[in-house]
Amino acid sequence: MTQSRRVWVLGASRGIGAAVARALSHHQLVVSARSESMLQTLATSLNSPTVVVHPCDVTNPASLDAVHAAINATHGPIDVLVYCAGIGTFAPLVDLTSNDLDQHLAVNVRGLFHALKLVIPGMTARQYGHIVNINSVAVLEPFANCSVYGASKAAARAMLRSLRTEVRADGIKVTDIYVGATDTDIWPSAARSEHGHRMMSPADVANVVASVIDHSLAPQLHLEEILLRPQGGDL
Questions:
Q1: Residue 31 · residue 211 · CB < 8 Å
Q2: Is residue 234 part of a domain?
Q3: How far is CA 25 from the centre of its chain?
Q4: Rounded to whole angstroms, how far apart are CA atoms 142 and 33?
Q5: 3-class SS of residue 130
Q6: Catalytic residue positions?
Q7: Would 192 be classed as within a structural domain?
Q8: Is 141 in contact with 181 (CB distance < 8 Å)?
Q9: What is the per-residue pLDDT across 78-125, written as a single tens digit (0 to 9) for each?
Q10: Which domain CATH number covers 210?
Q11: What single string gives the DSSP state of each residue in 4-46?
Q12: What's the N-to-C CA distance of the chain in angstroms?
């Protein structure tokens, strides 16, 4: 039986985040997202006494602070952070607005930044911890209509690569997972209807996340970056 750890999944209400929560429900699991009703539905479906719902908004540092404090007070410090929160707007750059840019940075970069600052001190003190971020192949390939989304994900990649060198000696592992086309509602319904048979499923990605976390128990092994693509390649 895999050792149970305290896992906090941000962005757990749907898509990859919900699938990750399902794959990790045997751990002491805290699920967070903005929609409390969707989280409650997820928790009910999991039917596990070790799954706890804590709604929060990753774009609001005070919301993250409050949830993190509640988790520590009630359940203890976080061993594993899985950051699945993310947004994507896909259009030509000239059609995007400064608000689009701000929203992508708020969710895909600043939310991650603040969550990291909350969990890392406790991990450092215990000399153990694991951070898993759901990233995108958009940081590796120049897709059209993906400028702002790709830029925000690239910023997250750069931040985590630097962080990895900072916390390695403290027993903390940082894994960035670059995910290709996955059948979630980040894609328009027409694209899912046409290409869904070629896309990975959220469960495919979640099973990799669960495996990465299980392997993190080996102190000599550090899975730093993983690339997941559909068998047929990018869409």
A1: no
A2: no
A3: 15
A4: 30
A5: strand
A6: 149
A7: yes
A8: no
A9: 999 999 999 999 999 999 999 999 999 999 999 999 999 999 999 999
A10: 3.40.50.720
A11: P-EEEEES-SSHHHHHHHHHTTTSEEEEE-S-HHHHHHHHHHH
A12: 38
